[in-house]
Amino acid sequence: MKTPILSAHNLVKHFNAGGFGAARKVVRAVDDVSFELAHGETLGVVGESGCGKSTTARLLVQLLTPDSGAVRYDGKVVGPEMPLKAFRSKVQMVFQDSFASLNPRMTMIDAVAFGPSVHGVPKAEARRKAQSLLERVGLDPARFGGRYAHELSGGQRQRVNIARALAFDPQVIVLDEAVSALDKSVEAQVLNLLMDLRRERGLTYVFISHDLNVVRHISDRVMVMYLGEVAEIGPAERLYTAPRHPYTEALLAAMPSLDPDRRTLEAPLAGDPPNPIDPPPGCRFHTRCARAFRPCDSKVPALHSLGGGHLAACHLNSTKEHAA
Ligand code: SF4
């Protein structure tokens, strides 16, 4: 098997939630998360708010330091075997808030040229590159290059943020809810731009979103997270048509359908996720799972391989009861 371009190995990140000594509380944002990314693929990451998907993204790009675990780029451990500066030019991130991502005092051409300049590219060359990238993301540099962030729409700002990411000539881009704040028509245009760029440049994406329809559209594989853990991961079509974790089933059942005969009348997922400070024992989903049975509240389900790169962490997959 080819070396993955990027991989996460047993990432753990807990945040202090107050208290001292034995009474110290932690939010278990990410707990033992591992996955691999193949060159040129798009991995969609889904789950409710607070499931750990954004923290996982920040760990992956090294904006956060894990409590334990490691990130490898092309087989090398980031930090000890690959300097952070080199890693940052290979792996870039685009955030949901297009405005907060841009310096309000910089023109768009300077914003795109800034990264390469800092990495040693001569100023004139960095500006030339910025012009051509603005053009590539659909913004006429003569018209938009001299503008400031507040003079652009949300869609235009997100195009600038994509150009900024591309300015490093990265191999991987992590997109954290990058199209979620946009109107549906603008969202579709930016998604098409992302797919064209992936084809042209052989990019690899991690695409984080709460919108399962968008994730299905863009992803080769999908990872479902629940309370800081991976619940299920596998090829997108297989996961959407034959999910093997009750949480994935519930998320899919909650997807808005345009077909009136297929609309869900009852909420498939009752209540909010439990408190990540004190997650339930055993399977963390057992307090909301309609199919929970005897071992679920005491035994942690391991990620079980179902073949074809499809894995799910549910006891039903390791017992005969799933046949039902
Ligand atoms: Fe439900 Fe048990 Fe599977 Fe968890 S392990 S998802 S509680 S059936």
CATH topology title of the domain at 4-105 and 148-242: Rossmann fold
The separation of the N and C termini measures 35 Å
Please bin the fraction of helical residues.
25-40%
Cofactors, ions, other ligands: iron/sulfur cluster
SSE diagram, text form:
Layout: E1 6-16, E2 26-37, E3 42-46, H1 53-60, E4 68-73, E5 76-77, H2 84-90, E6 91-94, H3 108-118, H4 123-136, H5 141-144, H6 154-166, E7 172-176, H7 184-201, E8 204-208, H8 212-218, E9 221-226, E10 229-235, H9 236-241, H10 246-253, E11 304-305, E12 311-312
Parallel strand pairs: 3-8, 3-9, 6-7, 7-8
Antiparallel strand pairs: 1-2, 1-4, 4-5, 9-10, 10-12, 11-12
Helix pairs in contact: 3-4, 3-6, 4-6
The chain binds iron/sulfur cluster.
Iron/sulfur cluster (SF4) is lined by residues 245-246, 283, 285-286, 289, 291-292, 296, 301, 314-316.
Descriptive overview:
This protein has 324 residues and is an alpha/beta fold. The chain has a domain at 4-105 and 148-242: P-loop containing nucleotide triphosphate hydrolases (Rossmann fold). It is built from ten helices and twelve strands. The protein has helices at 53-60, 84-90, 108-118, 123-136, 141-144, 154-166, 184-201, 212-218, 236-241, 246-253; strands at 6-16, 26-37, 42-46, 68-73, 76-77, 91-94, 172-176, 204-208, 221-226, 229-235, 304-305, 311-312. Strands 6-7-8-3-9-10-12-11 form an eight-stranded mixed β-sheet, with helices on both faces. Strands 2-1-4-5 form a four-stranded antiparallel β-sheet. Strand 11 (304-305) and strand 12 form a beta hairpin. Helix 3 (108-118) packs across helix 4 (123-136). The model has no long low-confidence stretch (mean pLDDT 92). The site of iron/sulfur cluster has 13 residues, from loops.
